[in-house]
From TrEMBL, chains A, B:
This is Molybdopterin molybdenumtransferase. GO terms for biological process: Mo-molybdopterin cofactor biosynthetic process. The keyword Transferase applies. Pathway: Cofactor biosynthesis; molybdopterin biosynthesis. Signal peptide: none annotated. Catalyzes the insertion of molybdate into adenylated molybdopterin with the concomitant release of AMP. It comes from Acinetobacter halotolerans. One of its GO terms (cellular component) is cytosol. It is an enzyme of class 2 (transferase). Gene3D superfamilies: MoaB/Mog-like domain, MoeA, C-terminal, domain IV, Molybdopterin biosynthesis moea protein, domain 2, Molybdopterin biosynthesis moea protein, domain 3.
Length: 412, 412
C-alpha cells in the first residue's frame, strides 16, 4: 500500500492539531444584535443589567394573600380584584385581603403568601377560603433569585447556542460582542470530475468533494461557493493570488501530494504562502498541507490555506478534525473538538499510521461502545450512511477488544 | 409547589411521545436535486446506476506495469507515456511495458501491477526499475469493489447529512425523493412581554421564548416567523383560523394552563382542532397540549398544534423532546430521539413527576457521567450556558449516586 509509516518528516495528528489551533491570528470582533449571533462565539463577557426575576412574582395561577395567621387551613380572605401577568396593582394588600394573580404576575406590596388556585375555594365574588395550610413564600419567585444586577451571565468563548441565546434574551441583552466568522473559499482541483454521465467513459468520476464541502459548511453555518479548477499551475496560481486578498481561509481538495500534477504547494509558495506543515502521519489524509499568507501591509488579516487530499474520505475526515479546528481557532476557540472515550467491541490490526475510522457508536448500560464499519479506504464513502462517529486508533499497536479509544461524534 | 403529581388525567412522557410519533399524517414527498436535500429524510430507497469505482484505477501516484515475472525486485520496464487522473490511454500495455499513472487514473488494459512511485527508480526517459518486489493488484482499486450497479446505496428514512450527501454524489445520484419539511408557524402569547427596558417597570419581562424558538428552528434548518399575540380570545381565535389553513404545524407558547387568560385550548377547539392530549406528568412542562385539525376537504394536510407552556425552560425542554419528535414524525421518522444511558454522579431527591433536568455530561474511561446543574426551575434558563444534555429522571423514586439514567445530548 502507499504511504508507509516509516516516511520521514511527517508530523503527528496532535502536532498538526496544535499548529492549527495556535498559529492562526484570531479574527476581529463585532457587535451584533443578539438574534444574529446564533452559534457564534462570545468575545466579551456579558453581565446582567437586570435582576432575574426583575420583580417578585407568582409562580402559579392563584391568589396573593396578606395574613399573620399561623394556620391557614380554612382561613378566609376578602378578594380585591386581579393582576394579570404583564400588569401591576398599585394598591398594597392589607391583612385579611387576597388578590387574584396569574403565573408571572407581580405580587403586590404586603403579600405574605401565594396560594395556588387548586387549594382555594371561591365562596363568593368577594370571598375565598383556603382548603389547605400553605407555607409562606412557597409559590413566590423572588426578585434576583436567579440572577442579580451585575452578575456575569456568560464568559468569553461561550458558544451562543439556542439555549444561551434564550438565556441572554431573558436578561434583556440586546447586542453582544462576538468574533467574526471566517470568510472561506473552497477550491476543488482536478481534471477528473465528470460533468455529465457521458464523461464517465473518459476516465472521470462524479464529484463528491464539492457537494461534501458545500453541505459541511452549510451545517457549520457558512454559505460557501465551490470553485472548480483544473490541474494546471497557471490556473491554481491565479486562483490563490485572487483569493488570498479576499478570504481568511482557502480550503483546497486534491493536488497536495508529490505527483507531477500536484500544484497546490508550489503555487501556494509562489503566491506568498509559507508552509506551516505538510504531511501528517495519519490515515486517511497523509498529504495534508497547512500554510499561511501574511499580507505585506499589516492591516489585512492573514489567509490560511488548508490543502486537503483529493480522496473524499480524507476530505470528510480532515474537515471534521482539522477544518473545524481551524475555523474555531480563528474565533479564539482552543478546544473545538470534544473527544469521547469509548470501548472498542472487537480487535483491530496494527497499522503504521494513526487512523481515523468511521464507526457506529452505541450506549450499553452507560458505556459507549464502538463497532467498526467495512469499506474504510480513502476513496470510499458509502459507510457514512451508518457511521455516527470518527474514532482515533493509535499507530503500531494491535488494539484488543475491550480497549478504550477516543473519538468524535458526527452530529449531523 | 404547583402541580402535584397526584393530579388525575395526566399522561406519561412515553405516552405523549408515542402519540406525537404515531398520530401525524406523514407529509407528501418531493423530488429534489441532491444538493438541496441536506438534513432531509429519504422517502425512496436509492440504488446505484454505476459501479464504484466506475473503472479499475490506480490507488497511488506511480506506474502501471504488465509483467509475468514472479520476482519483481530490480525488474526493468519500458516507459510508455503517462495517464493523468481524468484521462485514459487507448493503448493496452504489453509485457515488459510500464506507463506513468496518477491516483485515480484508469489503468490501461493489460495492467498486472501498479507500483507506487516511492519504490520506482527512473533510469532514463524510457526505462524504469523496481527497487522492491510488489504483489499483483496491491495498489489497484477494482471496478465495483465498493458498490456495484443496482446495489442499494441508502434506505427510506436515511437522514441526508453531509456524509450521506457526499456518498450519493459520488455515485452520480442527481435527484432524490425526500419528505417535505413541515411549514411551521410559531405563536408567542402573552401580555407580559417587554418591548423596551421601560416596560419592565410595568410588570413585564423580556421575551425569551421568541428568540429561543427562532434560534431552535434555525438549527433544525427552518426559518420561521415569530408571531406575538396578546392574551385575548378573539386574537388567538383569529390567529388559529388563519394559520391552520397554511401551516402543517402551529407551535404556541403560554396560555395552555387553566388560568382565566389561557385561551389556547378553547380557541383551538373553536377553530376545529381536536385534542390529542393535554397535560403530561412531567417537570417542566406539565400543561403541554397537542391537538389536530383535519381539513374538511380531504385534499389538505392536517394541521398539528403543539401548545407549549409559557415558562422558557419548559419551552426549551419541550422543543428538544416533543418539538423534534413532531417535526421528524411528519417526515416519517419514528425514532427521532437518540437516548443515551449514563451514570449519575450524585443522588437526587424523589419527585412526584418525571423530570427533565439540564445537566453536564462528560466521558470518563468510556463511561458517560452526569453532573446536575443548579437553577432547574421552569422560569430559569441561565444554566443552559453549562448544560450539554437533558436527563430523564423517573418519578417517585430517590436516585442514588451511580445509578443509570437516560438522556439526550444538546448538540448545538
Amino acid at each position: 500500500m502507499s504511504g508507509c509509516g516509516a516516511e520521514k518528516g511527517l508530523i503527528s495528528i496532535d502536532e498538526a492539531l496544535q499548529l492549527i489551533q495556535t498559529r492562526p491570528q484570531v479574527l476581529a470582533t463585532e457587535t451584533l444584535p443578539l438574534g444574529q449571533c446564533l452559534n457564534r462565539y462570545l468575545a466579551e463577557a456579558v453581565y446582567s443589567n437586570v435582576n432575574l426575576p426583575n420583580f417578585s412574582q407568582s409562580a402559579v395561577d392563584g391568589y396573593a394573600l396578606n395574613t399573620m395567621l399561623e394556620h391557614l387551613q380554612d382561613a378566609r380572605f376578602d378578594l380585591k380584584g386581579e393582576i394579570k401577568a404583564g400588569s401591576v396593582s398599585d394598591c398594597p394588600l392589607e391583612q385579611g385581603q387576597a388578590i387574584r394573580i396569574f403565573t408571572g404576575g407581580k405580587i403586590p406590596e404586603g403579600t405574605t403568601h401565594v396560594a395556588r388556585q387548586e387549594i382555594v375555594i371561591v365562596e363568593s365574588d368577594a370571598n375565598i377560603r383556603l382548603a389547605e395550610h400553605i407555607k409562606p413564600e412557597a409559590d413566590i419567585r423572588f426578585t434576583g433569585e436567579e440572577i442579580q444586577v451585575g452578575q456575569q451571565l456568560a464568559d468569553v468563548g461561550q458558544k451562543i447556542n439556542s439555549g444561551a441565546l434564550a438565556a441572554l434574551s431573558m436578561a434583556g441583552v440586546q447586542t453582544i460582542d462576538v468574533f467574526s466568522v471566517p470568510k472561506v473559499a473552497v477550491v476543488v482541483t482536478g481534471d477528473e470530475v465528470a460533468e455529465t454521465p457521458a464523461d464517465l467513459q473518459a476516465g472521470k468520476v462524479f464529484d463528491a468533494n464539492g457537494p461534501l464541502l458545500k453541505a459541511w459548511f452549510n451545517d457549520y453555518g457558512l454559505d460557501v461557493e465551490i470553485l472548480h479548477i483544473a490541474d494546471e499551475a497557471e490556473q491554481v496560481r491565479h486562483c490563490f493570488e485572487q483569493l488570498k486578498q479576499q478570504y481568511d481561509v482557502i480550503i483546497t481538495t486534491g493536488g497536495v501530494s508529490v505527483g507531477d500534477y500536484d500544484f497546490v504547494r508550489p503555487c501556494a509558495f509562489e503566491t506568498g504562502f509559507e508552509q506551516v506543515f505538510w504531511k501528517v502521519k495519519q490515515k486517511p489524509g497523509k498529504p495534508l498541507f497547512f500554510a499561511e499568507y501574511k499580507p505585506l501591509n499589516s492591516e489585512g488579516h492573514p489567509c490560511y490555506l488548508l490543502g486537503l487530499p483529493g480522496n473524499p474520505a480524507a476530505v470528510y475526515v480532515a474537515m471534521q478534525i482539522y477544518g473545524k479546528t481551524l475555523l474555531d481557532a480563528l474565533q479564539s476557540q482552543d478546544q473545538p473538538l470534544e473527544w469521547f472515550s469509548a470501548i472498542l467491541t472487537h480487535e483491530l490490526k496494527s497499522d503504521a499510521r494513526e487512523r481515523f475510522l468511521r464507526m457506529h457508536a452505541y450506549f450499553e448500560y452507560g458505556q459507549l461502545k464502538l463497532q467498526s464499519l467495512a469499506k474504510q479506504q480513502s476513496h470510499m464513502l458509502s459507510n457514512l450512511m451508518q457511521a455516527n462517529c470518527l474514532v482515533r486508533i493509535p499507530a503500531n499497536i494491535k488494539i484488543e477488544a475491550g480497549q478504550l479509544v477516543s473519538g468524535l461524534f458526527i452530529h449531523n
